[in-house]
Amino acid sequence: MAKKPPQFIGRRSRLSPEDFVRAWQSSASINEVVVKTGLGKNILRSRANSYQKLGIKLKKLPNIINPLNVTKLKALAIRLGKKKKPTRRGVDG
Fold first, then answer.
1. Which of 27, 35, 51, 81 meets the CB 3.0–4.6 Å disulfide criterion with 56?
2. Average pLDDT, whole number, for the chain?
3. Structure pTM?
4. Does residue 35 lie within any of the structural domains?
5. Number of independent structural domains in the chain
């Protein structure tokens, strides 16, 4: 059964320290932690930093999990750019 998202009171979350560490350590990116917890990136980074200062060993998380594949994106842009432009048949006449 899926775990319920954290409850919010105003801007504060009731995400326990244990749930925070579980979400952080089981995620591949900071964006994944955002989705799991509903908290903002800056709040998450601040909380992780505070825990690390206390000696809690949290793994380092990248901002994004999938960096851009520039080669594939360039090929896609070229392929899509070669498609015929739609005619204006019927619009002007």
1. 51
2. 82
3. 0.58
4. yes
5. 1
